[in-house]
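Notes from the 1:1 (GR / supervisor)

We went over the backlog. Supervisor wanted to see one worked example end to end before approving the batch request, so GR pasted a single chain during the call. The sequence is below; no edits were made to it. Supervisor asked that the structure be written out right there so they could see what the output format looks like.
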Amino acid sequence: MTYRQSLERLSTELGLEQRVTFNGMVEGEEKEQHFYNADICIVPSYKEAFCLVVAEALSRGIPVIVSRSTPWKRPASVVD
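Structure output shown during the call:
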């Protein structure tokens, strides 16, 4: 079972399958539409050197939650 599959299974077990979407990689206008519709961006990663989606989401004012395996150690905030 892949990491994504385990997260999808957990989402189902917690009854969140109607509220959680696993989009995978998207580009261009499709990505912009996802950001436009997003309430939050979650990055559940085992290992990231730098994850551009974090900067992209924060630049659009979308809150981000990252796992402990990413390089950010403290919460970041966006200033309006």
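Supervisor's comment: Residues 23-80 form one domain.
Batch request approved.
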